[in-house]
Amino acid sequence: IAALTACLASSVSAKTLTVGFSQIGSESGWRAAETTVTKQQAEKRGITLKFADAQQKQENQIKAIRGFIAQGVDAILVAPVVATGWDAVLKEAKEEKIPVILLDREIDAPKDLYLTAVTSDTVYEGKVAGEWLAKDVGSKDCKVVELQGTTGSSPAINRKKGFEQGIAGHTNIKIVRSQTGDFTRTKGKEVMESFIKAEGGGKDICAVYAHNDDMAVGAIQAIKEAGLKPGTDIKVVSVDSIPDIFQAMAKGEANATVELTPNMAGPAFDALEAYLKDKKEPPKWIQTESKLYTQADDPQKVYEAKKGLGY
Ligand code: GYE
């Protein structure tokens, strides 16, 4: 009997966890890396990961989460595409006692509807980008165009707000145009083309601030096609720190990027395992680091180092 009890106990504690992951899609290089790293982290820990790609649609995410609840998963990870509209489905998960962890984006919902959120400080990222620009242009007049992320997403809202804080008090710097590029390269290029057209060929634009590197890479292409030099005629500052932006920085075509880690799943699984095994309540926000890189930081070397980190 003792042997049987011990055997049962160990098989219970060693029970492999099944976790559902509702991912937004693959709009950016950063997100593709996040997906890769999440799968690696699950495998390393012996967690069975059920992966659902929502193709940027909240309704697909809600469907996927309902599916995970129906399958009786042990926990759910969700990278919420937009900030609002989650209460109902999160209540359903709560009723079934399935912990939900938010990855990389925040939501507007009561905090008891999720276990924790693993994100970077996206307001701070915008602020760092704005402060970098303010320092770089000094007292010169500077017309900025802004490529926003997905409308209604927390990083788009916060990176806009943070940038405005970063340039506050610098009356020589003005955001003259601001529009969504949906965090994608294609839309970033398209919207930058329209900005250049609207601003008389782009000669008066001093900088582009993009809420992610992919849109910046698209913008760089548009600047070149307009016969201007990205990085010099038009400064380029963005967020994510994907390998491609370091290549652009090495060529002098981009100026600064704020890094966030694609490994949000590692801290999420750590918190989940501690919660399920030892009933340890994590803090409501697990913040990942942010770091500014400029052309002075040996971009070629950073580019080499980034490969293999999910990119
Ligand atoms: O910066 C961007 C992505 O939610 C923080 O989403 C994330 C953002 C990331 O598509 O590239």
From TrEMBL:
Keywords: Signal. Its main location: other. Residues 20-279 form the Periplasmic binding protein domain. The keyword Cell membrane does not apply. One of its GO terms (cellular component) is cell envelope. InterPro entries: Peripla_BP_I (IPR028082), SBP_2_dom (IPR025997), YtfQ_transport (IPR054837). GO terms for molecular function: carbohydrate binding. Transmembrane segments: none annotated. Residues 1-14 form the signal peptide. It is found in: Cell envelope. Belongs to the bacterial solute-binding protein 2 family. NCBIfam families: YtfQ_transport. This is ABC transporter substrate-binding protein.
